[in-house]
Amino acid sequence: MRIAFLGDINLETDLATWEAADVPDFHEALGVDLVVGNFESTIDGEKFEPRGRTDKMVQISVDPRVIDKLRRCGVDVVSVANNHVTDFEAEAARHTIETLQAAFGEDRVFGWVAQPSIELVPGLRVVGIVYPETMPRRVEGEWDAFVGEEDEGVVPRFVRPDEKLVVYAHWGWEVVMATSPVVRRRARTLVREGAAQVIGLHTHVTGGGEDIGEATVLYSLGNLLFRVFPSYNDRMIDRLRRSTVAVYDWDGTNIRLVETWTGHFDERFNLTLTKNRRRLPGGPAVRLQHAVPDALAAVIYAYSRHTRWFRISVATVVEGVEGPFGERTKRLVTRTGRRLLGSRPIRDAAEPSD
Fold this sequence. Notes:
By secondary structure, the protein is an alpha/beta fold. It is built from 10 helices and 16 strands. The strands form 3 sheets. Strands 1, 2, 5, 6, 13, 14, 15 and 16 form an 8-stranded mixed beta sheet that branches. Strands 7-8-9-10-12-11 form a 6-stranded mixed beta sheet, with helices on one face. Strands 3-4 form a two-stranded parallel ribbon.
């Protein structure tokens, strides 16, 4: 049996554009039996809370009629473990989840407090986890997204001796292709605690991947279909329109990544899929980051994260350095900054929340 995992899906466009969009049937195009996607939106959100009454920079709400074509394109299972399902508070999250359950099935939607995981097929479970750096709006109660407040101890309760576990993780920092040292450490923890496969989302650009033991970690699948903001330059818009589609083989006992595809959509939401020559995604710089010591990998990440502001944050470099050396370095950076800047603290440039 083959299973495909898709990146972020936000169909916040006019219904005519979406209905006219050329999107292949994922089952036929990828040769798979089951398709899982991340539904990163609320449904009819404005009916529950008017736009503007929030501290979030972006709120996403879609027409419920977009779901029908999404199902026709072959999406079978959806995750709501993301930082937008709660954009319009708890009642909107409840409405979104119940609408998705009505369309896909009650056991085909996962990633919120009352149902963080589901059994995909007998012997194979998937859990959706949102991490705090993605800044989800917390609504408390059963309709909140399932947030992993700690890096350790999150997945053991979902690990069962008769099942393999896939973690669908919403993590990282937006529009950065390199992997954060924090996310990389977290991935190692997830595998150590029992995850058979780890699949990352949220950054809106494609990330790299690496094998950790018998598991494969894909750090970011990118945007499968997602409204792109016009404020970005042409080069960034092109990156925001690309994704990795991951195809796994499940033999009833083990799950393994067998191939990846590149998805690319245009301004009319027409989507093309191209099979990759390599099993793991990522260009030379991204691949290099996973082949060097952690300290150097942290430098690569810091450069990638801060090139938009034409500077490298030393604080970001040392965030990936553990132990006494890391603590001494952080104290040195703080003292040096105070000497140079007076009483003002050193802060990273503020990043927009998607």
